[in-house]
Amino acid sequence: MKPTLPAKLLHALAPWRNAPAWHIAFSGGLDSTVLLHLLANSESIPPLSAVHVHHGLQAAADAWPSHCQSICDHLGVPLRIMRVQVQAGASLEGAAREARYQAFTEVMGAGAVMLTAQHREDQAETLLFRLLRGAGVRGLTAMPVHRPLAGGHLVRPLLHVSRGELEAYAMAHQLQWIADPSNTDTQFSRNYLRHRVFPRLTERWPQAVSRLARSAEHLNEAQGLLDELARIDLQAADQPSPFPWLPLPSLALACLRELSDARQRNALRHWLSPLTRLPDSDHWVGWQSLRDARHDAQPLWRLADGQLHRCGERIWWLPSSWSEFSDTAVSWPDAQHPLSLPGNGLLRIVGKAPAGPFEVRYRQGGETLDVPGRGRRDLKRLLNESGVPGFVRGRLPLLYQGERLLGVPTLAGLRVAPSEGWQLHWVPQTCDQGLS
Questions:
Q1: Which domains does the chain have, with CATH numbers?
Q2: 27 a known binding residue?
Q3: What is this structure's pTM?
């Protein structure tokens, strides 16, 4: 006996039955209306609420919040209506989706679940759409059943349910839903596939939708194996940095070089995916140029959300926000207390601080520094000796008293004489403060 739609849904949601809250992304359309009705009539589930995102992209949408409110009131489900601004861009669909998911993150609590109502036909459309765009294995996994979202989980419990099943349920329970007029506009790629392509496919191959959805499952399994291989390869490359005070993701290059080109790309995709949008296959030549540059070069590879730098035999990820700091001099009248540097972390003196006042400046070139036992030395040469990555040198806070460079942060080979009784320590801005 085939399981009923309520039984299918609760089986799919079993792993999240102990979540502190379930939120439904409620557009008011057929799919989310069925999902809301199913859960509102379920027992022993976490506290349930709905979220309606109003994009303001068409006049008809102004009536949708009141419709959604009426449905939720009837079912006894709290509703939060969120109005968003959709940024203009090349893809209106993509911009609306980004605004919608940003709104979802605002309602999520730790461990909470956001439920969306995509079904099997949506999955098949996603796979074909991405295939036509030349996506790789990761893209062809289409929509995952679940993924992390803002400290909780985004879950799609209806991916194995057909649109026909949802329609039958809605008709049997006399549900009312919104028919979005934009869903028939074939200038949008997904609508074109839905209304022009899939009818022809299913006319010739009636099982096309279910088979495409099954292919997405196979590709998802293949991607899981690639991720497992990437984690194995990254274990060797994830060696401790020689600069533990520098809170940036980095990898040892030598270990990556031992891999085939395909395994290098696989490992880097896995490592970079939480950090930036990944490039298409045509742009991976940037990785080869960075990897194969001369040992004394300091090449970089520009990506969507930051840069990958190579310094010696190590690669470093620098998010776009790394360059967002002020290199203006900052006065430090009382060195007994730590100094917060705009966009550049915290500076403090460990030990008995010398009498101030001081000023913190950044490198201009030509600086010299007294080094115990070595006399006065050029700062650039000292930094070269200690191997400090080039991209961090412009951010090093330099302690001045008048026009005299009194100290730089404690680095290998750049320590104040023990007789001085103090050391300058710099805690750079961490990834949690916006570097990720």
A1: 5-206 (3.40.50.620), 238-323 (1.20.59.20), 330-433 (no CATH)
A2: yes
A3: 0.78
